[in-house]
Design brief:
The chain has 244 residues and is of the alpha/beta class. It has one domain: Alanine racemase (TIM Barrel, Alpha-Beta Barrel). It contains ten helices and ten strands. The strands form two sheets. Strands 2, 3, 4, 5, 6, 7, 8 and 9 form an eight-stranded parallel beta sheet that branches. Strands 1-10 form a two-stranded parallel ribbon. It is globular.
Length: 244
């Protein structure tokens, strides 16, 4: 029988099982290429709950979401997965800060002193501190939020006063259109910035984490010392999986 006819004669359930198996295999192969010291934050924006369950079955435990509303709906449907860690990686509006610290263990996109101070106030009575990355821009980029280096260095004393936040690292996204060597330099400069800040011995700021690198540049990020990478398309494909 023609293999194409067999493919199209599959029931929706059988097709889903094949799709799920292929996804798990792809993720497992990807994980085998990543050093154990690097944490994979699977970017699940517009990815189906079923695909996320497959990612979980393949061993991933960190999911990164861009939007509060989408994350909230997914968390409700995945609440049986008790050991998942949720990371907010998209821009956070100040008026959604309260919900963010309720939904996410990590907020990687803290991009201003104003936002950090608001999160600090909201976290005052929480049993655990939100884990935070400070989003930085090593190069000017009108399309990205975050501190430029001089601004961040000036704000460090105020960030150090945010006693209800666990400030653990830097997060960066290089501007679009850079050559590979320019991207690599952005990642290296991010690591050097973390070292510069560490030399100030601020007790409230511990920048051991470097969240950098996505599907197209994660290898460059790992070479530059990333401790977290944020792949999405390379795990789940070019388009969102449509099963809901």
């Amino acid at each position: 029988m023609n293999p194409t006819l067999i493919f199209y004669s599959l029931s929706p359930i059988a097709f889903l099982m094949i799709e799920t198996d292929l996804l798990q295999e792809r993720i497992q192969r990807f994980r085998q290429t990543i050093p154990d010291t690097v944490r994979i934050i699977a970017v699940t924006k517009q990815v189906s709950v079923e695909a996320m369950r497959s990612a979980y079955a393949a061993g991933l435990r960190d999911f990164g979401e861009n939007r509060i509303q989408e994350a909230e709906a997914k968390q409700e449907r995945l609440k049986d997965l008790k050991d998942v860690t949720w990371h907010l990686i998209g821009h956070l509006q100040s008026n959604k800060a309260q919900r963010a610290i309720e939904l996410f263990q990590w907020i990687q996109s803290v991009d201003s002193l104003k936002l950090a101070q608001r999160l600090d106030r909201l976290a005052q009575d929480r049993p655990t501190k939100p884990q935070i990355c400070l989003q930085v821009k090593l190069l000017p980029d009108p399309h990205k939020s975050g501190w430029m280096v001089p601004e961040l260095l000036a704000d460090l004393p105020h960030l150090n006063d945010c006693k209800n936040l666990d400030i653990q690292g830097l997060m960066t996204i290089p501007p679009a259109g850079l050559a590979p060597d320019e991207i690599a330099d952005v990642f290296k400069q991010t690591g050097k910035l973390a070292e510069t800040i560490a030399q100030q011995s601020l007790p409230g700021i511990h920048l051991n984490q470097r969240s950098m690198g996505m599907s197209d540049d994660y290898l460059l990020a790992i070479q530059a010392g990333a401790t977290m990478i944020r792949p999405g398309r390379i795990l789940f494909g070019d388009r969102p999986l449509t099963v809901s």
